[in-house]
Each structure stands twice: as structure tokens, then as C-alpha cells.
Amino acid sequence: MLILSRKKDESIIIDGNIELTIIEVKDNQVRIGINAPKNIPVHRKEVYQEIQQQAKEASLSSPEDLDSLF
Amino acid sequence: MKVSSTRFGEIDIKETEIISLSNGLIGFEEETNFILLPSKNPLTGWLQSIKTPNLAFVVSNPYDFYSNYEFNLTDNDQKELNISKADDVTVLSILVVKSGAEEITANLLAPVIINKNNRCGKQIILNNSGYSTKHYVLNDIKKAAKNHSKELELTVSR
Questions:
Q1: Which of A16, B72, B82, B84 has the lowest CB atom count within 10 Å?
Q2: Given a cut of 70, is residue A68 above it in pLDDT?
Q3: C-beta of residue B145 within 8 angstroms of C-beta of residue A70
Q4: Quick one: average pLDDT of A48-62?
């Protein structure tokens, strides 16, 4: 993993068109501003993990499970 | 072409029946091609992977049992999927069916959006929508199933 140190109001540019700016650093929380083209989805990782988890559970359903419903 | 499926055996399909999701499903990014197979109940169907025989998801169109469902498709997604009106779109939510169907949850946070005309789609995440990956929908589905006979859109009849 590439690790860079940044101070408040400093930024990182990724691939020329994605800009991450450190907006605020307070206690153990950092606020980050993200400027990216609209076609780049940006999400908190927890949201992604939750959706992945749901999909994994969903893939284990069996026809018998479903049939007993109807 | 022939598709093998652990749950349904070998299935003969036309290539035009394939639903193609450009970025796959979240958690299954390598899986971009699916076929929608019918289940016993018309409210639900099976989204079967073309390349992985044992991978299939129970899906449902959330509007069939949860009519208040609402979201906006971003301009970018509309453009990407070549969608110009609501009528072009069909929506699938992935369901988790617990053993014996004692409990069913629907992922309303990350629906799969498909352009009906070309069967191309993608999974989107509805940030700040208040929807989650686990809506308890067993009763809604049971209720809706009573007056529902139309098959899930894009289903391939076998």
C-alpha cells in the first residue's frame, strides 16, 4: 500500500481526475472531500462489505427453500 | 447455447436471452452474464450465472411487492445503460431466503437495473436513500403473490 502524509487542506490526485482533500482532522476522525468524475462511484467501504455479504448469503439459497414458501 | 446449472441441470438458451451486467454483482465482480429462470412463484426468479453452474440468486422485482420503492437513476447511469424513460427499465432485488422460507430479506439498497430492450444492466447503490440490504419482506411477498400471476419480466421460459 502506498502511504502518503497529508495535512489539512492538502490533497492527493489520482489518475489526473480524482482529488481527495483532507478537510478536517479532529480527534480520531478525518473528513475527506472527494472530487471525482460522475462515472466514478464512491462509497464507504462498510456499505460495499454489507452488500457483498448479502450477495454471498443469497447465493446459498436453494430451490427447496423457496418452494416451501408457496 | 447450453448452460449448466447445479440447481436446474442443463439449460438450452438463446444468446439474446442473456442478461449482461457490465460490472458484475458486488461481491461477484467476475460474474457478468446471467439468465433469469422462473421459479414456482411468478414473483420470484433465479438469476443464474452463465459461467458458474452453482451460482444462482433468488431475485424479485421490488415493485411487485413493495410499491413505495423509489429512487432516482443518475444521469450517468441512464446514459451508460441507454435508458431514456422509466418504461425501459426493469429492476431486480436480490433476496436471501432462509432455510424453509421462514424469513426472506430483500436488498433494496443495491438493486440491479436492467434495460429491457437490450438486457444490459448494472447494480447500483442508493446512497443516503434509507434503504438497507435487509428488508424483511416475507409477508409482503406472500400478500402480493395472492393476486399476481404475471411472470417476472425477462424470465426465460423453459
A1: A16
A2: no
A3: yes
A4: 91
Rounded to a whole number, what is the distance in Å from the CA of A57 to chain B's nearest CA?
A: 6
Contact yes or no for A56 and B142 at CB 8 A:
no
Relative to beta strand B135-136, strand B104-106 is antiparallel
Measure the CA–CA gap between A56 and B58, rounded to whole angstroms: 12
Cα A26 to the chain's mean position, in Å? 21
Angle at the Cα of B48 from the Cα atoms of B45 and B53, rounded to 5 degrees: 140
Strands B120-123 and B19-21: parallel
* Chain B, nearest residue to A63 by Cα: B7
- Cα→Cα distances B76→A5, A27, B18, B79, Å: 33, 37, 23, 5
The DSSP symbol for B101 reads G
Report CA-CA distances (Å) from A51 to A60, B41, B47, B95, B135: 15, 25, 17, 12, 13
Per the rule left: phi > 0, alpha: psi between -120 and 50, beta: everything else, A15 is left
The distance of Cα B87 from the centroid of its chain, to the nearest Å, equals 16
Chain A residue at shortest CA distance from B25: A55
Amino acid at A27: D
Helix (H, G, I), strand (E, B) or coil at B126: coil
Q: In what order do the strands lie in the sheet with A18-26?
A: A11-14, A18-26, A29-35
